[in-house]
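@channel sequence for tomorrow's demo:
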Amino acid sequence: MTVLVAPDKFKGSLTAAQVASAVAAGLLAVSRDEPVVELPVADGGEGTVAAAVAAGFRRVPVRVSGPTGRRITAFFALRGEVAVVELAEASGLHRLPGGLPAPLTASSYGTGELIAAARAAGASRIVLGVGGSACTDGGAGMLTALGARVLDSSGAPVPPGGIGLSSVSTVDLSGVSAVDLELACDVDNPLLGPLGAAAVYGPQKGASPSDVAVLEAGLRHWASVLGPSSASASAASAASAASAGSAGSGPGSASGGSASAAGAGAAGGVGFAALAALGARMRPGISLLLDLLGFSDAVRDARLVITGEGSLDTQSLHGKAPIGVLRAATAAGVPTIAVAGRCLLPPAEWRAAGFTAVHTLTDLEPDPASCMTNAAPLLRRLAEHLARTHTAAA
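structure tokens (generated this afternoon):
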């Protein structure tokens, strides 16, 4: 029997693979005979491609447009006919030049280029992780890169970003081929309103209150043009391409392509465009990734699972990676321990969630800055403690 180490990243400090490596090193330092399996995980945000590569996918580089149009090298992961595309790789906040936000003009065009590159590489099934975006363009950029024509009343292409959405007059999807697309998403926000893409996530991308109003108006107009009726109309022109794909995978074939659909607000509205125009299927990010990464096979031989992330808090309880790992391990009858940089949940809450124990870097080092800087050695020490306590009793 093994100890399965399946953490997410410690954002700002360590990748998921680095977390898994540090924990495994600490466990093996105390008990060299203890079989340890490392399986870094992700929930669709930053680190999704890295987790897939750690599980055996091939890392493929592509030159694409970043969120502001600057050409960058991004990556997707490929194994056989399955590709994992991470929106944040091309259109993420960390791709903004100099870290300067561009809430009105940032585009998802590069994400569409990644999807197109994955298809050209032979992928017939594409998993798109939609966390960590810098854009609020409703997915218009992504669709344009895939062959759509997004035009104003004079027939000219609209400007990139959310600023251009209010001037959209027509969307021609006849150039968009069918794609078998699954969205790995950990949010259920609709496209519009107080819980929508602009209101909730716009400020995180640098949008001022006036910017949020502009983005909301643009998204509302975009939804009226690219609604389910528009998507259904486009399906006829793409019928031959759609018939070549799996059932329910062609443009306009999604049943949940409305602005009010759960997840339509993901990634600044990329979720809406994927559902309404590409017939995408939405799944909780961590569940989808665990399936791809082979978690069910790995947990079958485990007697203990160790998961975690940088901050274990109330957001974690709403479908983040550690909770997804916990639920999958519990279903397999395996106890689960969490490690984290910090834990903001009272013991009653994490016990009610099902964790056997929670241990944090702040147990060893109370200074948060030091925890960020020295996360790897602190994690190794924490894992040594786990090896002396929990693993022997598991």
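heads up for whoever presents: The mean pLDDT is 90.
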